[in-house]
Structure to design on (146 residues):
């Protein structure tokens, strides 16, 4: 058994923490629910890579997002403290979006997921093809494998 396997096994056998602060647990679930959203991740990536962007530039960089969805996404990110929205008092109005330090730190954490996906892309594609081929050979089943 490798050291990593032994460590995983030890964590599985360790007692579960007796007290988890319900407020922290609720916050973690809420944050994961919001930031695990496809559009939030893509906006994070766009702002991390390109810096401050205007609304239309952000939409172009993200690609495939409606104005309504982009508006909802950046508003939620602003509410969560991930994005700073700056309205410039000019005509026509100009609005810029940039990551806050909090958004920047989330982007750095997400970078690990991006690197993992990039590293394992071929492996995941092979697994998906194998699964699809196996499913094609199986008789049709209902939900839950029944």
């Amino acid at each position: 058994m490798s050291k990593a396997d032994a460590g995983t096994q030890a964590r599985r056998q360790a007692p579960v923490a007796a007290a988890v602060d319900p407020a922290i647990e609720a916050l973690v679930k809420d944050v994961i629910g919001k930031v695990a959203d496809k559009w939030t991740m893509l906006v994070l990536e766009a702002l991390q890579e390109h810096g401050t962007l205007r609304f239309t530039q952000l939409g172009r960089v993200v690609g495939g997002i409606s104005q309504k969805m982009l508006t909802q996404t950046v508003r939620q990110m602003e509410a969560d403290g991930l994005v700073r929205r700056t309205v410039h008092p000019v005509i026509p109005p100009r609005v810029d979006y940039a990551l806050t330090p909090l958004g920047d730190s989330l982007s750095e954490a997400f970078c690990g997921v991006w690197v993992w996906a990039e590293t394992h892309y071929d492996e995941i594609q092979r697994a998906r093809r194998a699964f699809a081929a196996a499913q094609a050979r199986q008789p049709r089943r209902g939900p839950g494998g029944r």
In short: The CA atoms of residues 125 and 131 lie 10 Å apart. The chain has one domain: 18-140.
